[in-house]
Amino acid sequence: MPRQVTAFSNPLVKLARSLRDKKHRRREGLFLAEGLRILTEARETGRLPELLFFSDSSHKLIAKLIEETEAAGGEAIETTSDILHKISGKDNPQTVIGVYRQFDTALEAIDRAAAPLWIVAQALRDPGNLGTILRTGDAVGAGGLILIDDCADPFSVEAVRASMGALFTQRIAAARWETFLPWLRSGPGQLIGTSLNATTDYQAARYAKPAFILVGNEQAGLPRAYEAECDVLVKLPMLGKADSLNAAVATAVMAYEVINQWRRA
C-alpha cells in the first residue's frame, strides 16, 4: 500500500531532490527518471524504481508501476504536485518520478556479440547530446554507448530526459581510452572515426560488423592520436558555411549510413 508524503522535509523527498546533483548521485548510486513514458519503458525492460513518487494513480500504467514496484521490494509514495516540482526542478513536473539504482558501467560487462553496432563517444560534455545519442542508438538497434575519457554523466536528469527511455534499452559503459583500445582489439570490431581531417567520404567507406562509431568532443573533435587508431576515418560533406554538425546529429547520420549499407547488402 503506497504511503502518503506531503512534507518537503521528508527524508525520501530530500534524497530524491539531492539526486539532481552529480555528487549525490555518485554517493548514493541512484538517479532520477521522470514521466510515465520513460518509467513504463524501464518497466518493460525489467527495471523498476527503488522509490516511485506519484500524484495520481488513476492511470492504469501508473497503477501497474505501483503494483510491480511494491512487488519487487520498492516503495511507492503518493505525494503532491508541489513536491514533484521540488524533486524535478521543472515548473510543470511529470505526474510520476522514479528513483533508480545506477547500472554497472564496467567495460568488461559489454558483450560485443550482442549487437552489430555500438556507439563510442569521447569527451562528450553535453548531457542533451548524450541522451540524444542513446535515443539514436535505440532507433538503429545499437547495443549501447561506450563513454570514453571525461564525459557528461549519463545518469543526470538532463541526459535521462533526452534519452526518452533509451537509457534503459541501451548498455552503457565508461572507460579511459587506454583501457578501451586494448579491449576493442581483443576481439572483432571495426573502429569508425569521423573527422574533418579525413579524406574519405562517409558513403564511400565500407563498414564491417561489429562496427564501433567513434564521435569526438563537441568543440575539439577527436584527438589526432585517437584518429590514428581508427580502422576507417571518414568525413561528412559540409556544403554550406557551417564547418561541422552537432555531435548527436553527426552520430545519427553515421549510424544510419552504416545500417543502410548492411540493409542493402
Element layout with pairings:
Layout: E1 3-4, H1 11-18, H2 22-28, E2 30-34, H3 36-44, E3 51-54, H4 60-71, E4 75-78, H5 81-88, E5 96-101, E6 117-122, H6 127-139, E7 144-148, H7 157-163, E8 171-175, H8 177-185, E9 190-194, E10 200-201, E11 211-215, H9 224-228, E12 232-235, H10 247-264
Parallel strand pairs: 1-4, 3-4, 6-7, 6-11, 7-8, 9-11, 9-12, 10-12
Antiparallel strand pairs: 2-5, 3-5
Describe this structure in words.
- With 265 residues, this protein is of the alpha/beta class.
- It has two domains: 3-101, Ribosomal protein L30/S12 (60s Ribosomal Protein L30, Chain: A); 107-264, Alpha/beta knot (3-Layer(aba) Sandwich), CATH 3.40.1280.10.
- Helices cover 36% and strands 20% of the residues.
- The chain is built from ten helices and twelve strands.
- It has helices at residues 11-18, 22-28, 36-44, 60-71, 81-88, 127-139, 157-163, 177-185, 224-228, 247-264, and strands at residues 3-4, 30-34, 51-54, 75-78, 96-101, 117-122, 144-148, 171-175, 190-194, 200-201, 211-215, 232-235.
- The strands form two sheets. The chain has a seven-stranded parallel sheet with strand order 8-7-6-11-9-12-10, sandwiched between helices. The protein has a five-stranded mixed sheet with strand order 1-4-3-5-2, sandwiched between helices.
- Helix 7 links the parallel strand 7 and strand 8 (171-175).
